[in-house]
Amino acid sequence: MPSPLYEDAKSWGHTKDMTTIRWRGQGLDVRPEKVIKSRKDGDWRKTRLTADNLADTLVFDLRNLQAPEPGRVTFAIFLSFDASVRPDHQKWNEGTKLWDSTLKARMRVKLALDCELTARLDDKGELLPDAVIRLRATKADLKYDNLVVEHAAGLGGAAAKLMGDAVHRLVNEFKPSLERDLLTKADAAIVKAADTKEIRVKLGDLLVRKGRKEKP
Description:
Structural class: alpha+beta
Helix content: 10-25%
Number of helices: 4
Strand content: over 45%
Number of strands: 10
Mean pLDDT: 79
Shape: elongated
């Protein structure tokens, strides 16, 4: 699995070119000179999701293997593992930091995937046809539980946990659609990422390679 599992830093690192005046020379030869400097500016956000102990916490289950028709196999995959998430948020104004907030939490991620494997032969008039294979996820259902905030806004330990629990509870009470919409977007992103392109295998080339290896 990739490390990190997910990272979004599209809005992290924005800068703004600032023009300042610098005086050069000495005595009567003093003259102004424009200097353009790049300074941090704007709303910086990034989110990083990692699975630090995947070897010990990963649960993988293959379910409902079926062949509804020739050349098509469907199955379900269930994944569960411990993960850490770290969202960072900073605000800058022409090189001056106005806001800096970091949160670190751990949780149990649960992902159910409906998958499909298709295979077909593509006859292009050659001696042997090509085998075309495609593996994709048709549906994703991402959930999590056991959310524990370990660090929030300079707080750690029990104070961070209490603050995280309070924020999570308020979000669920006053904006329940926020978490639901984020999970829905995550499901769509997983389905898109888990769709492989068609893999074309030339059977004629495989036979030629096999024949070369068998020659004495």
